[in-house]
Amino acid sequence: MNDEPLKIKISIADRVYPLTVAYSQEEALRSASKKIDTMIHQFEENYAVRDKQDVLAMCALQFASQNEQRTIDTSENYNKAIERLIKLDEALDRILSK
């Protein structure tokens, strides 16, 4: 794997941003850029919003809320898994103590 920094240009909302990134980050950044542009296009089509700043703010809110929801879901799943492990441990203790 190449550890040298890579110079790329990312386009978001019709603006180009030159970045220097690790080789391993390039694909994720390009994918994120495409997702942002797709979301911008959807907001512009579905709502009467033409100001790029408003559209970008709506995109940021959408991505942040998705991230928060994943965090909540992961936390709930983690807590459920811990509860199940505790119950399994207690059941094993009962079986092994006989």
From TrEMBL:
Protein name as it appears in the record: Cell division protein ZapA
InterPro entries reported in the protein's UniProt record: Cell_div_ZapA-like, Cell_div_ZapA-like_sf
Single GO biological process annotation from the record: cell division
Protein's organism: Myroides indicus
Keywords: Cell cycle, Cell division
